Amino acid sequence: MSVAAHREAATGGLWSRMSLGQKQLIWAWGFLAVPLLFYVVIRFWPTFQAFYLSVTDWTITKPAAFVGLQNYKRLLADPLFWQVFRNTFLYLILGTPISLLISFVVAYYLDRVRFMHSFIRALYFLPFLTTAAAMAWVWRWFYQPVPIGVINDMLSGFGIPQQPFLRSTSQALPAVLAPAIWAGLGFQIIIFLAGLRAIPITYYEAARIDGLSEGAILRKITLPLLKPTLVFLVVFSSIGFLRIFDQVYNINTNDPGGPLNATKPLVLMIYQTAFSSYEMGYAAAQTVVLFLILLMISLVQLRLMSDR
Amino acid sequence: MRYRHMLASVALGFATLACSGAKAVEIEYWQYVFDTRVKAMTQLIAKFQEANPDIKVKQTTFPYADYQTKVAAAILAGQGPDVVQLFYGWTDNFISGKMIRPLRAEAFPSADIERDFFPIVSAMKRGNDYYGLPTAVRSLALFYNKKAFKDAGLDPNNPPKTLDELVAAAEKTTKRDGSGNIVSAGMTLDMGGQDHQWWREVLIRQFGGVPYTENDTKVAYNDEAGQKALTFYTDLQKKHKVGQAGFMEDGQAAFRAGLAAMTIDGTFRLGSFGTIKAFEWGVTELPANAQGVRSNYASYFANAITTKAEGEKLAAAEKFLSYVSSPEAMKIWMDVVGELPARRTAALTPENIANPIYGPFLKGLEYSHTTLFKDEAAQRQVAIDMANRVLIGGEDPKTSLAKAAEAEQAIIDRAKR
Q1: For the residues B257-273, what does the mean pLDDT come to?
Q2: What was the pLDDT predicted at B96?
Q3: Were B133 and a residue from A17, B286, B325, B334 both cysteine, which residue would form a disulfide, CB within 3.0 to 4.6 Å?
Q4: Dihedral, CA of residue A44, residue A50, residue A52 and residue A57, to nearest 10
Q5: Residues 79-138 of chain A whose Cβ lies under 8 A from any Cβ of chain B
Q6: What is the pLDDT of residues A127-165, one digit of tens each?
Q7: Rounded to an integer, what distance in angstroms lies between the CA atom of residue A184 and that of residue A135?
Q8: Do B181 and A146 touch (CB under 8 A)?
Q9: Hey, are the CB atoms on B388 and A161 less than 8 Å from each other?
């Protein structure tokens, strides 16, 4: 019996000599290799390619030549870049706190509502399902001057002078941001609700028995226990606002990012440099800068919010 | 048994396919999506294939926004069209990318081209070679809403002939609500549309300047003429208050909706405005200045043969190109799209000149200019921003003009490298 088994192992070769654990490991990596390979080819390879392109002057039609850091120098000297940089951060520092505050308040109270809870939740989620392009088009008509713009029609109905909204360098950015925040609310509310539900009810019961006020419960129990949810949403929505594009592009297709670049985010500048002026090298340099900003902000946020 | 039958029929099918494939040369034609253009080209292809049963033409279209990128990417990858439509302003780009080839002089003699076509076709010439030929050319004119004219007490058959008359007519046709907001504009202001061409090639010249020198490589409008031209344009909104940039999104939308009495647009808009049912409109030449000086901007999409076409495909592509630039094709194109024939004899027929719609455009063609853009989108953006700085930012035209001149010169210089 043992002789036969020994002979079988010898003929089976390498595979048969492995332990069960080793075999499982090979199988696991075998399956993992497919998505990994896919990721490397589709994601990482182009990323490295972008780093390489950023030090060339490739324009699609002309072959790429190495130009060193010239693209980066040009970028730092370009006033448009700094304006766009400022816009991008305005989207971030206005968009993230406002959207998180609104969605938390909605989720906090929605959590207590029993009547038609799922229906209201679905209503809040609906804008998230809508295409950004379609939404931007509806909003651009909302913002129009009087004969057709709903908002201005109402304003002049109350005798308030009509506002330029998208045709103003100061009002345009908040006007573009509003539908973007509104569209993202549904998702954030759902995540907050899940976070709220995950807090054990016993904590609340104990607090109430001890006579803690609602405000104190919120500060001492709910918010601290929501921290993982909050970290996730802050990072997630920050990245979203830093990469904002479709809302901006579609709300003003005649002059994307205008007027006078007042609403142009970095991603739109990259798009125009690459696919309107065909300066691929310069666009790649901008992409690298965006990548570094995203990386830095995500790392800082993770550090600040998940430690302790 | 049944399996064998199936196999046999499949094999037979392949054989017939292969057979018919071997008989006909198939070439690919690419253009961007614009309803009437696609329709016209479909008709032309059908006629061409009827006359040349051994050639098949496959038409591919996609949105204008991605057009250049896709064409460039496809040709460089050895795919894509054999005959391609391109804007005359992209020619340098396409040549430097080795995407299109010069037309063979034996098939398209330069002397014939120069004799038969309007002189603006020279924008397709580099050295002694032509790189493409247009089917149709486009020029600008003033569209006006006859109903709005009548309602304002103006003669609908006597549209403005000079810039002063234009302003006067615009003032009369503008409608405002109680708070002074414009509810129907007298004149559209839309730099993103055709106004930047009007400003660049028409207004600047009418105020005594030139937009560029040295083959359009040196910006020359940063002077008194340029200033007067910009002031005239921005005053339409700031001083006369007869229009408003961004009103109804864009100029053509406002005009279509009957909410603007006048707009400047090109021949390519005829097809779209032709479907307007709510009011009657007319066309007139772009207004002259007080001294009677007129100008116009003409442009065109040309068809070119790509470097991908070789051998029998090249021969087929040449045949197809010469058909789509024939007088017959131009007639069909004009009827369907509304663009003017690129050949003088096909365009300047007594019938066309007398036509109340084509006439003004044809007259404009005689004194038109064609800007040699380096990066049309970016150069247009310069004009949009220049007007916005004055209209939104309240900057004075002189400062804004100087910034625009500097920005545009930088774009041109960068393209030269």
Answers
A1: 91
A2: 81
A3: B325
A4: 160
A5: none
A6: 888 888 889 889 988 998 877 888 988 888 888 888 889
A7: 12
A8: yes
A9: no
Q: Which amino acid appears at position B399 of this protein?
A: T
Closest by CA to B160, choosing from B262, B294, B297, B298, is B262
pLDDT of residue B19: 46
- Please name the residue that has the structure tokens 């804007």: B87
Task: Determine the distance in angstroms separating the CA of A178 from the nearest CA of chain B, rounded to an integer.
Answer: 19
Q: What is d(CA A125, CA A117) in angstroms, rounded to the nearest whole number?
A: 12
Distance CA B208, CA B205 (A): 5
**By the 8 A CB rule, do A75 and A81 touch?**
yes
CATH code 1.10.3720.10 region(s) in chain A:
74-306
* Residue length of chain B: 417
* pLDDT above 60: residue B406: yes
Which residue on chain B is closest to A156 by alpha carbon? B179
String of DSSP letters for B167-201: HHHHHHH-EE-TTS-EEEEEE---IIIIIHHIIII
SS3 state of residue A271: helix
Residue B212 confidence (pLDDT) above 90:
yes
Contacts of B183 in chain A (CB under 8 A): 146-147
Q: How far apart are CA B188 and CA B193, in angstroms?
A: 10
Among the ranges given (A7-11, A103-107, B33-37), the one the predictor scored with the smallest mean pLDDT: A7-11
Q: What is the DSSP letter of A64?
A: P
B87 forms beta bridges with: B301
Chains A–B, number of C-beta pairs less than 8 Å apart: 79
How far apart are alpha carbons B194 and B414 in whole angstroms? 25
CATH number for region A74-306:
1.10.3720.10
B38 touches A: beta carbon within 8 Å: no
Cα R_g (chain A), whole angstroms: 27
pLDDT in tens, A214-245: 889 998 899 999 988 998 899 889 989 998 99
CA distance B100 to A52: 28
Closest of A75, A71, A82 to residue A281, by C-alpha: A71
Averaged over B179-195, what is the pLDDT?
91
DSSP lists the bridge partners of residue B215 as: none
Dig out the tokens for A60 from the structure.
């699609």
- φ/ψ (deg, to 5) at A275: -110, 5
Mean pLDDT on B174-199: 91
Give pLDDT, residue B7.
54
Tokens standing for residue A89: 């951060």
Ordered by where they begin, the domains of chain B are: 26-138+299-369 (3.40.190.10), 140-297+374-416 (3.40.190.10)
Q: In this model, does residue B18 exceed pLDDT 90? A: no
- For residue B121, give every residue at least 6 positions away whose Cβ sits within 8 Å of its Cβ, in sequence order, or none: B113, B114, B130, B133, B134, B300, B302, B342
Tell me the one-letter amino acid at B413.
D
Predicted confidence band of residue B1 (pLDDT cuts 50, 70, 90): very low
Q: Which residue would you say has higher pLDDT here, B295 or B377?
A: B295
A147 CB neighbours in chain B (<8 A) are: 183-184, 248, 259
Asked if the Cβ–Cβ distance from B179 to A162 is below 8 Å, we say: yes
Question: Taking a C-beta distance cutoff of 8 angstroms, is the pair A215, A127 a contact?
Answer: no
| CB-CB contact of A55 with A71 (8 Å) | yes
Partner B contacted by A242 (CB < 8 A)? no
Six token digits for residue B311: 């051998």
- Are B89 and B373 in contact by the 8 Å Cβ rule? The answer is yes
Split at pLDDT 50, 70, 90, the class of A298 is confident
Count CB-CB contacts under 10 A for residue A41: 10
CB atoms < 10 A from the CB of B11, how many? 10
In eight-state DSSP terms, residue A167 is: G
